[in-house]
Amino acid sequence: MIALQDVHKSFGPNAVLRGVSLEVPKGQSLVVIGGSGSGKSVLLKCILGLEAPDAGRILYEGAPLDARRRGPFLSRFGMLFQGGALFDSLPVWENICFRLLRGPGRLSRSAARERAVDKLARVGLGPDVAERHPAELSGGMQKRVALARAIAADPEVIFFDEPTTGLDPIMAGVINDLIRGIVTDMGATAITITHDMASVRAIADEVAMLHAGKIRWRGPVAAMDAAEDPYLRQFVTGAAEGPIETIR
Ligand SMILES: Nc1ncnc2c1ncn2[C@@H]1O[C@H](COP(=O)(O)OP(=O)(O)OP(=O)(O)O)[C@@H](O)[C@H]1O
């Protein structure tokens, strides 16, 4: 459904993506792992059109995702941003339906509020939360609201950018389980980027490891622990010693 073919992206002398090829079939949950600075965010930005690849192609449903097709793609797409990215000045329900309250096919305010309450229930929050402002909520509740916003338009494709950053391990587990349940229920195609191995195990059908600008390893999550690739092994076990160079 989404395919990257030999995608390259440099910033000056810094060659971040050096020929990334990756396919995500419809309904699959792919988690992309890789060290800090390995280019996970740049990869997502290239798919979203926020960065233009220097070379290579990005396909959606078999056709290049060019400027003309990006609008329809984005209308079927939802995203959970790292840190939530909620608007403090708006109540929770307007945050959840921000996009649905705008544009030609926009919902009425009452329909949007109803939709928000429905999505809040899906992430385990009561209708009373709808009228509150993000600043009044705990970090875990804000993450749930951000998740409700990501699924507000019943997207076919969802991106999760570091979904557990800043959460304690228990809340991270709750969010991971919610993400897995939602992706499965909706039959959505999902791409998650994370360093959190607990997220990988909870969310992924397939795992791809980005290293030195390329996909170093790709396989089903169940094959990850037995895989022999030394780079993947070091990442999965969190070992300080190994082939991945770190600045100490
Ligand atoms: N707009 C930009 N201009 C210049 N360099 C950039 C730009 N965006 C990203 N980079 C560089 O690209 C490299 C990859 O960054 P990226 O944010 O994709 O890493 P990441 O894998 O998401 O890291 P982290 O896990 O720490 O978020 C870094 O060296 C970064 O400095």
TrEMBL record:
SMART domains: AAA. Residues 2-237 form the ABC transporter domain. InterPro entries: AAA+_ATPase (IPR003593), ABC_transporter-like_ATP-bd (IPR003439), ABC_transporter-like_CS (IPR017871), P-loop_NTPase (IPR027417). PROSITE patterns: ABC_TRANSPORTER_1, ABC_TRANSPORTER_2. It comes from the Bacteria. It holds the Pfam family ABC_tran. SUPFAM superfamilies: P-loop containing nucleoside triphosphate hydrolases. Keywords: ATP-binding, Nucleotide-binding, Transport. This is ATP-binding cassette domain-containing protein.
